Amino acid sequence: MAGQFRPSTRSTASTISYNVRHQQPASLARRLLFPHLPPGADLPPLFLSQACPRELHDEVYDFIALALRAFVNTWWTKLTRYDKEFLPQITSIVTHVVRCLEQRLLDADLSLLVFSDIPALITQHFRDYRQAASKASTSYAIGGALSLPQLFHQLQPHRAVSPDGSLDEEYFRQAIDHVLRECLPTEDYAPEAERFIVREIILKVVVTDVIPRITQPWFLQKMVLDILGPSSDALPEQPSGSATSAHGHSRFSKSSIIVLLLSAIQKLSGACIMLIHAYKQVIYIIPIVNQTNCTRESTRVTSAGDEPVSVTPSVSRASSTLSMHASTPEKHVVFSDLTRGPLGMISEVLCVQDRLAATALVQFVSLFCCSFQTFMNKLLCYLLYSHVLSASALLSAVRVSKRTLFPNGYPGPPPVDPTAEEQVVIREEVVKRLAERVPVLTRSVLLGDPAVNTVAGVVDALSDEACNRHLAVFMVDALLLSVFPEMGS
After folding, report:
1. 98 SS3 class
2. Of 290, 301, 292, which is closest to residue 109 (Cα–Cα)?
3. CA distance 333 to 253
4. What predicted TM-score, i.e. pTM, was given to this entire model?
């Protein structure tokens, strides 16, 4: 009888060891942000939208936990190592802010921001930069006494940026204070000490860390190189057909003709496959786009009797941008052409007006888009919300940010700025790579000959840090006015 009970004991022991071995360790977000959550329970949802996948909630919570452990827990544990309620309290406040921003972003006209406001700002930046560069060292610059940033500042004055590119902290402080008033809970916004601490932390990140970094010309050029990927020079070269001449064969031998014929058949079949795939994509996407309701995203509100005007940077850019988003009983809705802004930006950036073939091509594309304006507006909105601002794209962005900012779970070392010689190499490389990435059939039409000169002109328009800061500030204004339209009143 005793031998009959031994298998039962062995089975119980194996079950216990199996459960211990397969028990998943608690995540960092669960240990820091939700220490009182029962084991096995899911983290509470961070976003209110039902369309957000579970992975997005977990990744954002993990990012918040890494940030709090790196920048808050390091000094809080020195004050008291027994208080475990501080980080959960911060998490509750962050959750409230994230949900408030989520609701405002869902209510904002992001399609107008992406396809109208931002292209207009970029177009005006390139136009004013080239105009300022043409006036340098002339009588317009008081005999060369005014520098290029000073001439540019005269064309694009802004109270938040000085002629030398210095940022006004008080301007951003007031803007951040309004955002906090709209997003923070009342009990957390009322105490001045807490509000001032949060405001100064955000101010330091925006004014001292983010804007000065992203406006560096070499940083923008390095980011473009990272997006383009590895250079084609690193790929193995294809063997040339002249190698067969070493064996005494003629250039037009039978084998060469067969290889040429097979290569032509391969390219033709590849082109046919691409056409078939494009046809299937068009057949699939047209019904979806036609069912898309893009009325909110593709309309502007203008005063009665006024014509719809695109947002163009000027002295009163902030008020003009806001006036298109405000709504009153005396105003009516006017549908906008979302393709006009991107096409105008491309024309200005590439100096299309200097080449007849490029001008004709852009005019043809513009005429085609105007003929199908309603469909093109719906198509742009569909591409924006289903690809650029989709949950999968946001999930990838959060994961990339987490790997970049916290490579080993903690903040990595600050990047070292390249030297002047390295910056010249980066600029030459980005000019060369951009010219190579344009298809050969359209390169001479769009960029002219040589194409490198046109690309160099594009890169030069973003080669001054002070001028780039004007563009960054105007973009921040456009984003704030889209999400918080009451700031312009």
Report:
1. helix
2. 301
3. 70
4. 0.79
* Residue environment code for 339-374, b if the CB has 16+ CB neighbours within 10 A, otherwise e: bbbbbbbbbbbbbbeebeebeeebeeebeebeeebe
Please list, residue by residue across 142-154, b when 16 or more beta carbons sit within 10 angstroms of its beta carbon and e when fewer do.
eeeebbbbbbbbe
In 315-388, alpha helices (H): 317-323, 340-349, 356-371, 373-383
Residues, the chain = 489
3-state secondary structure of 143: coil
Whole-angstrom distance, CA of residue 379 vs CA of residue 216: 34
Q: At 73, which amino acid appears?
A: N
Quickly count: other Cβ atoms within 10 Å of residue 382's Cβ: 19
Q: How far is CA 132 from CA 64, 85, 127, 467, in A?
A: 44, 56, 9, 10
Under a CB-based contact definition with an 8 Å cutoff, are residues 236 and 446 in contact? no
Torsion region of 355: left, alpha or beta (phi above 0 gives left; psi -120 to 50 gives alpha) = beta
Can you read off the two tokens belonging to residue 42?
């899911």
Residue with tokens 């070392």: 413
Q: Which residues 6+ apart lie within 8 Å of 131 measured at CB?
A: 155
Tokens read off for 146: 């005014």
CB 395, CB 56: distance < 8 Å: yes
Helix ranges restricted to H, 141-253: 148-155, 169-183, 186-189, 192-203, 211-214, 217-228
CA gap 216, 132 in Å, rounded: 19
Phi-psi group of 229: left, alpha or beta (phi > 0 → left; psi -120 to 50 → alpha; rest → beta) = left
- Gap between the Cα atoms of 57 and 30, Å rounded: 12
Asked if residues 203 and 177 have their Cβ atoms less than 8 Å apart, the reply is: no
Question: What is the C-alpha end-to-end distance of the chain, expressed in Å?
Answer: 89
pLDDT in tens, the chain (489 residues): 444 444 444 444 444 444 444 456 678 888 889 988 888 888 899 998 888 899 999 999 999 999 988 888 888 888 887 888 888 888 888 899 899 999 999 898 899 999 999 999 999 999 999 999 998 888 777 777 889 999 999 999 999 999 999 999 999 999 999 999 999 888 888 888 878 888 888 898 899 889 999 999 999 999 999 888 877 654 444 444 444 444 444 455 778 888 888 888 888 888 899 889 888 888 888 888 888 776 444 444 443 334 433 333 343 333 333 333 333 334 444 457 899 999 999 999 999 998 999 999 999 999 999 999 999 999 999 899 888 888 899 999 999 889 888 888 888 887 788 999 999 999 999 999 999 888 887 888 888 888 899 999 999 999 999 999 999 999 999 999 999 999 887
Alpha-carbon radius of gyration of the chain: 29
Structure tokens at 210: 């983010």
337 touches 369 (CB < 8 A): yes
